[in-house]
Design a protein that fits this description.
Blueprint (H helix, E strand, L loop, with lengths): L3 E2 L2 E6 L2 E3 L6 E6 L4 H4 L2 E9 L7 E3 L2 E9 L2 E5 L4 E4 L4 E5 L4 E7 L5 E9 L10 E5 L6 E4 L2 E7 L1 E2 L2 E2 L8 E8 L3 E8 L3 E8 L1 E4 L4 E4 L2 E5 L10 E8 L3 E8 L7 E3 L2 E3 L2 H12 L13
Parallel strand pairs: 1-24
Antiparallel strand pairs: 2-23, 3-4, 4-5, 5-12, 6-11, 7-10, 7-12, 8-9, 8-11, 10-13, 14-15, 15-18, 16-17, 18-25, 19-24, 20-23, 20-25, 21-22, 21-24, 26-27
Length: 289
């Protein structure tokens, strides 16, 4: 089978802002001024924060995928949801028609997270708000000669990730316990990007070398077949870890303003009106007994 072979399209390194207490440090892995290029992904923010940084707030029109790198993350929503996630855990949220929640560090933890904003097509922007916790022990692991792949979403080497995204995406974390190679297979029509968490790696036939905090977008077939797999060659020169996300582009107009992502500015303005009118419900808080 003659599979499409992917390469690196563009690459850069994350820069960080030191914000002080409680939002200690932030960087954009995927910066917000390139949303059209990243479709269906909007932004990917890397944050270090203490309790009080992300208290009660609303969202509408998109999904979030929050990956805990370190510390403990407390989730509270105004539908009675409450959970604590730890390193390696992920929370998937469909904000849909209107979410109101809080994401806090537990006690005196300094929490370190990656939060991806994933767009919804117009037809799904009014769907019901849902949350799904994905605990690291429930994530399938596929071994290969130099390490293993954790499959959070999509299908990889016969393993299916537990994430129940409303749009087709893959999320995989590839661990190299030593120098070695791995060929990732993802649908050829998926737009994809990677983020290096540790080590030194080379990607694609052009052998683009990236180290920690390196980001890259991948080539893909915009008119490709969702059922046909593409190949992406990865070589680790040392012990290393890389996250790779892919998704089918939505190809719709995007208007992102504050915590809302819609198709028009009028829809964003309506979201603000609905929130201030109380249509998102009461604040997110834990009921005191």
């Amino acid at each position: 089978m003659n599979r499409f072979k992917r390469d690196i399209k563009d690459h850069w390194y994350v820069t960080y802002n030191k914000n002080g207490y409680p939002h200690v440090q932030q960087g954009f892995v995927l910066p917000p001024n390139r949303m059209k290029e990243f479709d269906p992904f909007l932004i990917l923010a890397e944050d270090w924060f203490k309790r009080g940084a992300f208290s009660d707030h609303p969202h509408r029109g998109f999904q979030t995928i929050t990956y805990v790198l370190d510390g403990r993350l407390e989730h509270i929503d105004n539908h009675g949801g409450h959970s604590i996630l730890e390193a390696g855990d992920v929370q998937y949220m469909n904000a849909g028609s209107g979410a109101r929640h809080a994401e806090e560090a537990v006690d005196d933890d300094l929490i370190h997270t990656l939060q991806l904003w994933l767009n919804l097509p117009k037809a799904l922007k009014n769907t019901k708000t849902t949350y799904q916790n994905i605990y690291v022990e429930d994530v399938p692991r596929v071994p290969f000669e130099a390490g293993e792949v954790r499959v959070y979403s999509g299908e990889m080497d016969g393993a299916k990730g537990p994430m129940q995204s409303l749009v087709p995406i893959t999320m995989t974390e590839i661990y190299f316990i030593k120098a070695g190679t791995y060929t990732l297979q993802i649908p050829e029509n998926h737009n994809a990007f990677l983020y290096v968490l540790s080590g030194e790696l080379e990607f694609g036939s052009n052998k683009t070398k990236l180290t920690k905090t390196g980001v890259a977008t991948l080539t893909f077939k915009q008119d490709g077949d969702s059922e046909s797999e593409s190949e992406f060659f990865i070589k680790a020169n040392s012990r290393a870890k890389v996250l790779i996300y892919s998704g089918a582009p939505i190809n719709e107009e995007v208007v992102a303003y504050g915590p809302f992502v819609m198709n028009t500015m009028e829809e964003v303005q309506q979201a603000y009106k609905d929130y201030h009118a109380g249509k998102f419900g009461p604040p997110a808080k834990i009921d005191e007994e």
